[in-house]
Amino acid sequence: MRTLTAKPLTRDAFEPFGDVIETTSAPERFPINNGSTMRYHALAGVELKGDDARGIVSIFRGQPFAFPVTLQLMERHPLGSQCFVPMRGERFLLVVAPPVDVFGVDDLRAFITNGSQGVNYRAGVWHHPLLSLDRVSDFLVVDRAGSGNNCDERELPEKVRVVM
Ligand SMILES: NC(=O)N[C@@H](O)C(=O)O
Ligand code: NI
Asked: Which CDD domains match (predicted)?
């Protein structure tokens, strides 16, 4: 079985796959509301493609996984981005691959968040379905609803084990 080591999530390392939603690396921030609020501006873009596409907000309540995590499939959303923001500072595990039609296990990358980070998968980026860690975790999710198929699943050619 192939082993993949999860690395700490950083904006630069995740750039080929999407955006990191956090204040520390925010490229643009400015005070609003007469100075009582700091706006960390445009941390991620919401992509909504295809017929009657609309953006929706949901909550995903994920059951926790324990390391080593065994992967068997990946998925992508060709018609829209998908972002996950933990609602109570939960860490979670990300496994991604570039937005290409054919990828191999060597293309997989694993990241672990620090509890103060969310992520936005760009449309078409392969990712593993939500992998909560430590405890049952709630995530605010912004993604695309509308007609057409927006979820392709792909079995991995071999099982992959993710370790810390
Ligand atoms: N299926 C679904 O809505 N969830 C996945 O897209 C996921 O990334 O967890
Ligand atoms: Ni998804």
From this structure: cupin_UAH
